[in-house]
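Order emerges. As here.
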Amino acid sequence: MARAIVYTEIGSPDVLHLTEVPDHLAGPGEIVVRIEAAGVNPIDAKIRGGRRPSPPITEPRPVGFDGAGVVDQVGDGVEGFAVGDRVAIRDAHGTYASALLVRPENLALLPDAVTAAEGAGIGIPAGTAYQVLRSLAVGPDDVLLVHAGSGAVGQAAVQFAVAWGATVIATASPSRHAQLRELGAIPVAYGDGLLERVRDAAPSDVTVVFDGAGTDEAIEVSLALVADRDRIGTIVRGPDAASFGIRAFSGGSPVPLTDEEQAWRAEALPKTIELLASGDFVIELGPELPLAEAARAHELVEAHVAGKIVLVP
């Protein structure tokens, strides 16, 4: 039997529990991955707690979308993967488990230079950051403002934008400024006076904004700095983004991603792995907990603990 974290009702982290599930068998076009690390993301806790819309629960619901592990079975018709390959997983529901049935399009090969914990930290953070920056057409002539730059998505956004030649200003609490400087960003503290601090820090006018904070302050400062509303993107204020004339991605956005944007999210996984392997990308790792302590992991992610939280079966 395999093991998995599930829940049967919306609620606090305590609704999560470890259970045994039947062993998986790879059918045609499928792969079974033995999970070595599962990435814990804020969206996991938001869905569990009812803060993101989800269908009614009619059977035990699995948790998690990101992970890393080793290919255990390969179904007929699958090419490019073999038993024993190390892989990273994206957008495959139920990664809080000891094993998972995955489609090959949700996998990328993981070289020895990248750890399982790092591989489990790529999917949602890097995919979101990469897609939003591509959608906003960030390039070498831009001055980008990233709200909430020290979180997992924010750090990924900073690193991609710096690699593409943009100047990046990122908001964070002062205790996180050193981390942002190491990633190539100009850090500024959020709070009263943010608009003036950003203007003082920017070498020229801010041209594009990536909002990962969703606060009124972040929205007001963004609108004051960038006249072209089409170059202000938020991943938090989806439901009311249209009232500001800005673009929403994720965060309950009523507008689904285009096929091109979905492709960018998928493209981020192998590209980030390549950057990690070459030492040109960093994933800040946080607490590593046993799978059975998924409830504690959700408490930590909701407390905004620094670094990628990982569950290990």
